[in-house]
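Below sits the subject:
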Amino acid sequence: MTERRPPQFPPHSGFFGSLRAAVEAEIAAIERPRDAFAMYAKIAILAGCTVACYAAYLSLSGPIVTVLAVPFGVLLASIGFNVGHDGGHESLSRSRFVNRCAAFSFDLLGGSSYVWRWKHNLYHHSYPNVGGVDSDIELGPIARLAEFHRRRWVHRYQHLYLWLLYGLLMMKWHFLDDFLDVLRGRIGEMPLPRPRGTDLVLFVAGKSAFFALAFVIPLLVHGIALALAFYLAVSLVLGITISVVFQLAHCVEETAFYAGEAPDEWAVHQIATTVDFAPRSRLLRWFLGGLNFQIEHHLFPRLSHVHYPRIAPVVQRVCAERGVPYRVHDTFRAALRSHYRLLQANGRFE
């Protein structure tokens, strides 16, 4: 497969300049746009609960330990949303070292903060929902998320089976994706410089730590059957949670998909391919690290997510003034239904 060049966006019209000025005016009075106390308190809570859950998993014996799989998987997902994601975007702290330490939590979850930086920060955030560039919408033959994807007969059932298969994507990430991307030197059709020096050391160290925590230590404590059963259950919970959150932000009826072209300027493209959901839910906002405010996140990824609810009305106002559609699902359930309908529509075999 040959590498491709990303599309070029049309010149800025002044929309993003107006948007940025309005948001900067709104947050000018905030003393700590990053390094927010609320974020460090949340990290302490999530880290403490995760360590306690893992310790309980190793301390208990017998099949009863499997009841910990659901809360443990949910906690790991929230670590990814709040700690790894914010650290990777450098929105957690003004300190590069603190951000990099936070991003390394992705490695402990079985991913790679290095590959993530290219796949998510560069390709996904710059070109969301662009075929061949944003690998998050390229799920292979099992799914048809956009009309330009090849239609297969099995897709007529994707609105039923994909929910479970989302859980298997985590295991694919653990055992295949990062290794294959690094070996090939590309992510899908886009180039990926192979890690060197410190990046390579951290890549190997992260993978080693994950496999030790997920398999070696549990195998020694519980034996192979129970350790593998627990890993499978946690991975399913983690994979479904992370996948669904992404899909509700980018793969719903209201979002646009592009087969390589970029007809709109960058900021308009971000809004056209993204939807907020459940903005009034404090629980979801806390658990998801503000990712239900996905439009605000895509426009201002280096702003701490604790401020997204404050800037969302500003973004909506400027969009209304400039005639740019701003889309939001009022509830989590409404977003789920929209994703379901998208899968159903794109799965019809005509």
